[in-house]
Amino acid sequence: GLGGAGAGGPGGEPTARALEARKVCEAIDAEYRAALDRAARRAIVVQHNAWQRVADRYGLQIAAVIQPDHAVEPTPSDLRRAADAVRERRLTAVFADAQASPRAAEAVARASGARVLTLDAIGDGDWPGLMRRNLAALVEGLSDGPAARKP
C-alpha cells in the first residue's frame, strides 16, 4: 500500500502524509495513462522483465526480453529473438536497464536499426522523478522515429 507503517491516524484514518502520497501516485498514474494512450506503438523490448506490471497496467505488450535471466548473459538466440521482435513490430527503440551494462541492448539495437533508451527500476530515492523519467523514455521509445520510417 501507499501508507505503510504509521499511515493511519488515531482513528485509523490516513495521515496527511499518506493522503499526499496517494495524490502523488494518482497524479503519476494519470500522467502515464494520458501519455501512453496516445503512443504510436504498444509493444516494447526490454533488457530485463522488470516491466510486466507497468505493461499490464497501461496496455503495453512486452514483445521480447533481451536478457531473460538477469544473472546470465543473454545468448545469441536471445539477442536474435529480440532483434527480430523489433523488426517485426517496426519498433524504434529498445530499453536498457539503468543498473546493468547496456551492451546487450546495444547489440539488439545495432542488429535491428533501433536506438537504445534507458528504464530505471530502482532510482535514487526520488520516486516521482523516477516514474516521470521512465514515462518520458517510454513515450520517446513508443513514438514514430527513424526506424519506423524505413521502407
Key attributes of the depicted protein:
alpha/beta, elongated, two-stranded parallel ribbon, 151 residues
Question: Summarize this, please?
Answer:
The protein has helices at residues 16-37, 52-57, 76-89, 103-112, 127-141, and strands spanning 43-46, 61-65, 93-97, 115-119. It starts with 15 loop residues before the first helix and ends in a 10-residue tail after the last helix. The model is unreliable at 147-151 (pLDDT under 50).
How many H/I helical runs?
5
Detail the poorly predicted runs.
147-151
Record the strand order, biggest sheet.
1-2
User: Ends: how far apart?
Assistant: 47 Å
Q: What amount of the residues lies in strands?
A: 5-15%
Number of strands: 4
Mean pLDDT: 89
Q: Tell me the overall shape.
A: elongated
Fraction of residues in H or I helices: 40-55%
Helix/strand/pairing category: alpha/beta
Q: SSE order, as H and E?
A: HEHEHEHEH
Description:
There is one protein chain. The chain is an alpha/beta fold. Helix content is about 45%, strand content about 15%. The protein has 5 helices and 4 strands, in the order αβαβαβαβα. The protein has a two-stranded parallel ribbon. Strands 3-4 form a two-stranded parallel ribbon. β3, α4 and β4 form a beta-alpha-beta unit. α1 runs parallel beside α5 and α3 crosses α4. The longest helix has 22 residues. It is elongated.
